[in-house]
């Protein structure tokens, strides 16, 4: 008897959909690829043909140059022989999608990365009934319970207002996190100009082009210390301790990341103001999602697989870990 989902084959570099002869989130160039979202551990250049949301394709073109792209909107389906693929919002970053694969009566959802919190920069996660749910586990330990987003943004603005002769330098990943920090600040009434590192400019412009209003952004590279006093400056995490930051007005170093829940990580990176702000589901969101969807099987990848597999087994859900290559979401 065939096993449930045996037509989708996990490999270290991606998921191979055998009856369609295509790959999902392949880390290697492949003739046919489906891509859940634009982060580098899921989206690589060089595919012969790639199907993704229009936003993800735009991100890939910004990063890797022209793509042999086939845009698929949310809710739209595409047939590949006997396999049908439907893209559904994942709530992770702009254009991120879960991919529902249907074949001979079985439904497998490749969730990619996802979160359940409200985010002004992307469409919210939509639960999809399925037989197999392939879930990430980046924060798959009970210790990871993300605080209220508004409270973390208030910490940032409070530090800024308490130090008018300094700036707050926020380390935020260039795709998704930086734009979310800016949008959350705007939503809480922070209308002042925000200065950004040059590495963030292209993706911020892409978000604006896709209807995400970010307000007034100014290049930090050409601004003087006096101009940046009392303002927020955003930069990639790697720039926090870089020579680039020495030109800022006595910066308060902050980092926006789910990993800031781990105090030692903040200390190691010299972070004065840790902001626990993640684009991934925390422990409760992971387990609540599995309870809501109620799949027959759960396949766990990208993170703390063992704890989530154990939780599934104690809740009478068959589960296994997949050995897929990935990163801890690029400084999420």
Q: Could you explain the architecture of this structure?
A:
There is one protein chain. The protein has 332 residues and is of the alpha/beta class. Helices cover 23% and strands 24% of the residues. It has two domains: 188 residues, Ribonuclease Z/Hydroxyacylglutathione hydrolase-like (Metallo-beta-lactamase, Chain A, 4-Layer Sandwich), CATH 3.60.15.10; 127 residues, Rossmann fold (3-Layer(aba) Sandwich), CATH 3.40.50. The longest helix has 14 residues. The protein is globular, with a radius of gyration of 20 Å. InterPro entries: MBL, RibonucZ/Hydroxyglut_hydro, Xnuc_lig_assoc. Its EC number is 3.1.-.-. This is Ligase-associated DNA damage response exonuclease.
Strand order of the largest sheet: 7-8-9-10-11-18-19
Can you give the mean pLDDT?
Answer: 95
CATH architecture classification name of the largest domain: 4-Layer Sandwich
Taking the sheet with the most strands, its summary is: 7 strands, mixed
Quote the beta fraction. Answer: 15-25%
Measure the end-to-end span.
41 Å
The helix-strand sequence is EEEEEHEEEEEEHEHEHEHEEHEHEHE
Brief write-up:
This protein has helices at 54-64, 149-162, 177-187, 201-209, 225-228, 263-268, 283-293, 305-314; strands spanning 8-11, 14-17, 22-24, 33-34, 50-52, 69-71, 77-80, 83-89, 97-103, 106-110, 132-137, 168-171, 194-196, 217-219, 232-235, 252-256, 273-275, 297-303, 318-321. It is of the alpha/beta class. A hairpin with a 2-residue loop joins strand 9 (97-103) and strand 10 (106-110).
